[in-house]
Model the fold of this input.
Amino acid sequence: MEATPGAGPGRRRRRTWGQRLALALGCLSTLGLGLTAAGLGYVYRKYERLPRVELSGVLDETADSGEPENYLIVGIESAENLDPDDPVRIGRAGLRRSDTIMVVRVDPAERGAKLLSIPRDLWVPIAGTNSNRKINAAVEIGGAPLLIRTIAESFGIDIHHYVEVDFAAFRGLVDAVDGVPIYFPYPARDKKTGLNIRDTGCVTLDPVQALAFVRSRTYEQLIDGEWEIDEALPDLGRISRQQAFIRKALSRASDRGARNPGTLDQLIDVGLDGITVDQDLTAGDMFDLGRRFRSFDPDNLETYSLDAAVTPDMEGDASILRLDQAKAAPIFDLFRESQSQAGAASGDMDPASVRLRVLNGTGRSQEATDAAASLEAVGFGIDGLGDDPVLGNESTDVQYPPGQEAAADLVARWLRGGADLREVDGATGIVLVTGDDWTGVRDTPQPPTTSASPSATTTTTSRGADAGPSAPEAGVTTSTTNPAARDC
Done:
């Protein structure tokens, strides 16, 4: 079918529609699980009835079977399939914009997946228009093809498949899995979306409250008798809550669909009414993907956001987010085609793209020389070595200029004992200073952080598994505004 038109100091390291993504992928991933031959044929016939959008010439069709592919998951701000008297329809007559934009990179060879959330308020050049707009306007202007072209031209990320979900389908998916349990440390509300959570602890959200939760941009919590609004920017705070929630929704959908064929059947029926996929995404593709990811643990889903690479601004009367391409590049590289950019061995930056100086911070004989040789052996470029002016450092440090945190993090993840990351204003390059905890260089790096934007504190710590049980976990941030981060 044709596309529908309109269709500072250092740091301590440790939207939406996320459920729609999670539940849709959870539904699709269960297709390869334990079905009879007759059941397979039944599901095939149903799947092939899913609404399609023609995207020939827009999608990247160069990936071979078994190679990594990028799925663009879009939540459409459309209420046309809801009941005429549904409150969500108020003010939305004919409205069709992308409410949430996510890129999911699936690598069958690694049984892994990465998810990048793109803020809908991101100010970008809209492909072919010679103008800049918020990225969520692309669907309203030119449908899915224009959004895909804009992502490719602005971020260098090619899209292989497209999945679109509307309000009604989301509610149906939540209903099919009997709701999704979320942990709320405090009562929560959003007057604009209708979110109203009176209880604390684990609360199983029904379809109406689930939709209100994932759409919340003015999220408040009742703390010590006062309603406190989420201090994060609306888009970024929502993304943080949703990404953590995705893991729970994936687990719920996969578990219910695998154990109960009726649930799987209901999920597919919902899809027939409100999920649209590209013309090339076949039932066979989904069965193959489901078989490959049969043992995938949703807790291992790597999630990324652009928090550290965007700044709030105004364009006329509109609140927008401006993108720093240099800061965003290490994240975008993970979703780009070039494995030399993404780092085939470690799944992130190539060590050859990073140069650093090495300083002996302990006074132990030949430590800087040996450290430099080991780092050079795994691919890093060495710009010099020497002794730190102050010896006796307890902890190994990786010092870096503003904007080079991803490169410094890569260095730290190659170290057996990890390192503290310290942003230094005025620095001209990355410097490694060994400490008493220096134990050498690893054979392979620790995995990249699952949070590409650590919370802003004084120092960032990137510690490997060898650092011992007391070491903080890389990339983990905790916040009362992210209730889904707690287990239920």
